Amino acid sequence: MIADTDVWARFRSDFKVLSHSLSIDEFDDKWAEMVHEYESCAARALEYVTSQWFPHKESWAVAWTVDFKHYGHVTSNRVESVHAALKATLTYRQGRLMRVVKAVLDLSEVQKDRVEAEIATGKHKAPQDLASNNHFAYIIR
């Protein structure tokens, strides 16, 4: 997307700072700075972010997500880890639907068993406010 690797590295770093802005005003200010900085050397990247990421900024930008409970998680590393495991399991890019469904079910069962084992051995402690949350009732007893 950006041919100059130094510009690309700076763009990615600035975008990370933008995504961690604590207020909407700070987010808007940092975005204006990015537009000014990169409009001549990374216009396509700015267009991509504007068209693909900004319509969903309430889902990924800290300025919008800071007020929601996330139990200490501000990244999607757990989801990315599961996605990587799923991709490794599915050796063919174009798998049959039932094979994909079975792989997803198998991986979710493995993950559930792992979390239950961590909770049972004390390696993983669930926050106290999860105990009253019905979504986690099958894990927390």
Overall morphology: extended
Averaged pLDDT? 77
Number of strands: 0
What is the radius of gyration computed over CA atoms, rounded to a whole number of angstroms? 20 Å
SSE order: HHHHHHH
Show unreliable segments: none
Beta-strand portion reads under 5%
Feature tags:
mainly alpha, 141 residues
Description:
The chain has 141 residues and is mainly alpha-helical. It has two domains: 5-65, no CATH class; 77-136, no CATH class. It is built from seven helices and no strands. It has helices at residues 5-19, 24-38, 43-53, 57-60, 62-65, 77-89, 97-121. α1 runs antiparallel to α2. The chain is extended, with a radius of gyration of 20 Å. The N and C termini lie far apart (49 Å). 5% of the residues are buried. The mean pLDDT is 77.
Write the layout of secondary structure elements.
Elements: H1 5-19, H2 24-38, H3 43-53, H4 57-60, H5 62-65, H6 77-89, H7 97-121
Helix pairs in contact: 1-2
Could you provide a short overview of the structure?
The protein is mainly α. Helices cover 62% and strands 0% of the residues.
